Amino acid sequence: MNALVHMAETEVPQNPLVPPIPELVIGLIAFAIVFFFLWKKLLPSINKVLEERREAIEGGIEKAEAAQQEASDVLQQYKDQLAEARHEAARLRSEAQEQGAALIAEMRAEGQRQREEIIAAGHAQIEADRKQAAQALRQDVGTLATELAGKLVGESLEDHARQSRVIDRFLDGLERDAGNAEAGSANGAAR
């Protein structure tokens, strides 16, 4: 036992970082077995999952780019349609303004025509009323003049033909006197 103790005492102290050789060999063999198992069984599964994920990401990027391009196309279509709609609205607004102006001009012309018709009808009515009033006045004045003349003369002027001639002469004389009086006052006013 002394020899063992002595050997233990004389033995070089072993470095704790360097494992003993049998442990190192067993560890390397175990590592090789685990590595071989992982390399043959687990690594292809991991590579397959990673490849699928890479393809999915690339496909997603392609889909996103396609969707972005489609969205860009749709946006351009929308902008084109919006510009066309604005142009159409401006054209319709312009047409409506033109139609409104034409309608206003037409209504003004129609109003002017109706106004002229009303004025002409009013003048015709006034002229007809004036003639009717003059005729009624002539008859009334004639009747009164005949009665007055009959009273002055002392005989009846019942003869209608004579009565009409007398009335017409009397009224014509009154109209001449009235015309001369107006002309004289107009000449006096002109001086």
TrEMBL record:
InterPro entries: ATP_synth_B-like_membr_sf, ATP_synth_b/b'su_bac/chlpt, ATP_synth_F0_bsu_bac, ATP_synthase_B_chain
Transmembrane residue ranges: 20-39
Coiled coil: 47-102
Keywords in alphabetical order: ATP synthesis, Cell membrane, CF(0), Coiled coil, Hydrogen ion transport, Ion transport, Membrane, Transmembrane, Transmembrane helix, Transport
GO cellular component, one term: plasma membrane
Location(s), subcellular: Cell membrane
Top-level taxon of the source organism: Bacteria
Membrane topology of the entry: Single-pass membrane protein
Subunit field text: F-type ATPases have 2 components, F(1) - the catalytic core - and F(0) - the membrane proton channel. F(1) has five subunits: alpha(3), beta(3), gamma(1), delta(1), epsilon(1). F(0) has three main subunits: a(1), b(2) and c(10-14). The alpha and beta chains form an alternating ring which encloses part of the gamma chain. F(1) is attached to F(0) by a central stalk formed by the gamma and epsilon chains, while a peripheral stalk is formed by the delta and b chains.
Family membership: Belongs to the ATPase B chain family.
Function, in words: Component of the F(0) channel, it forms part of the peripheral stalk, linking F(1) to F(0). F(1)F(0) ATP synthase produces ATP from ADP in the presence of a proton or sodium gradient. F-type ATPases consist of two structural domains, F(1) containing the extramembraneous catalytic core and F(0) containing the membrane proton channel, linked together by a central stalk and a peripheral stalk. During catalysis, ATP synthesis in the catalytic domain of F(1) is coupled via a rotary mechanism of the central stalk subunits to proton translocation.
Name of the protein: ATP synthase subunit b
